[in-house]
Design goal:
Helices cover 40% and strands 14% of the residues. With 458 residues, it is an alpha/beta fold. Strands 1-2-3-4-5-7-12-13 form an 8-stranded parallel beta barrel, surrounded by 5 helices. It has a 3-stranded mixed sheet with strand order 6-8-9, covered by helices on one side. Strand 8 and strand 9 form a beta hairpin. The longest helix is centred in the middle third of the chain and has 25 residues, at 202-226. Bound molecules: 5-hydroxymethyl-3,4-dihydroxypiperidine (IFM). The site of 5-hydroxymethyl-3,4-dihydroxypiperidine has 8 residues, from loops.
Length: 458
């Protein structure tokens, strides 16, 4: 295991001096509601499936919860001040569905809607553009009790919720994201039980896939009608899937995981059809006209990328595949995720080849267990190394013809990292979860300098 510095030190590894980026290139930071807001039972917010998951034995490491998280609900102004200090152009955040509609539909919660008014206004006053993600995994528990994403009606409930947001914030928010990482919350929520709602059922997984795709299409239509001048994207996590150990017996597992992870949402939304293995399995749930409802014109492709993933045969799992390990000699960072900048560059090129769209890198970053030294400094060189080589790989993809128009770090703050709780820190700003003290890490200064340098060259 290494911290990735060996890659940086290998002469010629990332050749050539980067070209200037577009003058309107967007530099940003990303967060999501459940991971930072806290105030889970305050001001009328209803419970989400993640509140339930946190209270389920074995659901989250250490029994951690998002009840308080980074207390961003109360400290949002301070956090926006930190963003201003970084010099970012944009802030990608998500709205908590159960904060604005405590039961998912029906009666709205005025205090919840007011919170996002204050947030959006303060972001704009800081000279930062708000990028609003409608859904980042926190389905209202009341809707899950009606079947959640496995119920076709959920697409309509989502469209109504999106309309509420579009009417309320569309005068000030022009950048809209329908969903964050479709394949993660459907696969881990309904087939491999690593996330809420923690179901393992092939049929429910297939239904959830199709209904989420329908919701996406309905959401795009609603935003187009209600928000003049909206620029709409969806955020996909695309990671090349490799057979564990390069072994032939893992190849079919890798091919199926590749369809579930990389193609099951992008292909229907952007090309109008499911990939072959999924198409066959999902057919019973598809109604006439559905593919046209899903495939709506989009303005950009949102890419979340960290590294490749590995698949192996696992007959105990819903689909017969399981998560494999990276080769033991792979360079890794922080929490052990592998560093493969070439895979990032190739993914950007592949998206360009397959979908021919502008790309916004909506998440890229690096987890770790960063803690302050005696002087209170957090010198996260492992993250700086990672960000440097991944930025260099982005430049390579741009030189090779990819139209990348923005880059957002995941994440502004250390936060609630889902099933890993608070142990895996992705922030460029350290959060002491006892005191809620924020301390920018060395990577925050590095990112602020990078933005200045790139703007100067543009
Ligand atoms: O924290 C998550 C985020 O919610 C979605 N993308 C990956 C991040 C790191 O695991």
């Amino acid at each position: 295991m290494s911290d990735g510095s060996a890659i940086l030190e290998r002469p010629g590894e990332r050749p050539g001096s980067p070209m200037p980026l577009r003058s309107d290139f967007v530099w940003g930071v990303s967060t999501s509601a459940y991971q930072i807001e806290g105030a889970a039972a305050e001001d009328g917010r209803g419970p989400s499936i993640w509140d339930t998951r946190c209270r389920t034995a074995g659901g989250v490491v250490n029994g951690d919860t998002g009840d308080v998280a980074c207390d961003h609900y109360h400290r949002y102004a301070e956090d926006i001040g930190l963003m201003r200090g970084l010099g970012v152009d944009a802030y990608r955040f998500s709205v908590a569905w159960p904060r604005v509609l405590p039961r998912g539909r029906g009666a709205v919660n005025p205090a919840g809607l007011d919170f996002y008014d204050r947030l959006v206004d303060t972001v704009l006053e800081a000279g930062i553009e708000p990028w609003l993600c409608v859904y980042h995994w926190d389905l209202p528990q009341a809707l899950h009790d009606l079947g959640g994403w496995a119920n076709r009606d959920c697409a309509g409930w989502y469209a109504d919720y999106t309309a509420l947001l579009a009417r309320r914030y569309g005068d000030r928010v022009k950048r809209w994201i329908t969903f964050n990482e479709f394949s993660v919350f459907t696969l881990f929520g309904y087939a491999i039980p690593w996330a809420a709602p923690g179901i393992t059922d092939r049929e429910q997984h297939l239904r959830a896939i199709h209904h989420v795709n329908l919701a996406h299409g309905a959401g795009v239509d609603v935003i187009r009608v209600l928000v003049p001048g909206a620029s709409i994207g969806a955020v996909h996590n695309r990671q090349r899937v490799l057979p564990e150990g390069g072994r032939p017996e893992n190849e079919e597992a890798a091919a199926l995981l590749d369809e579930h992870w990389n193609l099951t949402f992008c292909d229907p939304q952007l090309l109008g059809h499911y990939p072959p293995r999924v198409a066959q399995a999902i057919e019973p749930y598809v109604q006439p006209g559905d593919m046209a409802r899903i495939c709506r014109p989009m303005d950009w492709f949102g890419l979340n990328h960290y590294g490749p993933i590995f698949a192996k045969v696992d007959p105990t799992r819903t689909w017969g595949y399981g998560w494999g390990d990276a080769p033991p000699d792979s360079p890794t960072y922080g929490v052990g995720w592998p560093i493969f900048p070439d895979v990032f560059r190739d993914e950007l090129l592949e998206i360009t080849r397959r979908y021919r769209m502008p790309i916004i890198i909506t998440e890229n970053g690096c987890g770790g267990s960063d803690s302050p030294d005696e002087s209170g400094t957090i010198d996260d060189q492992h993250r700086i190394n990672y960000l440097r080589i991944y930025n260099a790989a982005m430049h390579e993809a741009i030189r090779a013809g990819t139209d990348v128009r923005g880059y957002f770090i995941w994440s502004l703050l250390d936060n609630f990292e889902w099933g890993s709780g608070y142990g895996n820190r992705f922030g460029i700003v350290h959060v002491d979860f006892q005191t809620q003290k924020r301390t920018p890490k060395a990577s925050a200064r590095w990112y602020a300098d990078l933005i200045k340098r790139e703007r100067f060259r543009a």
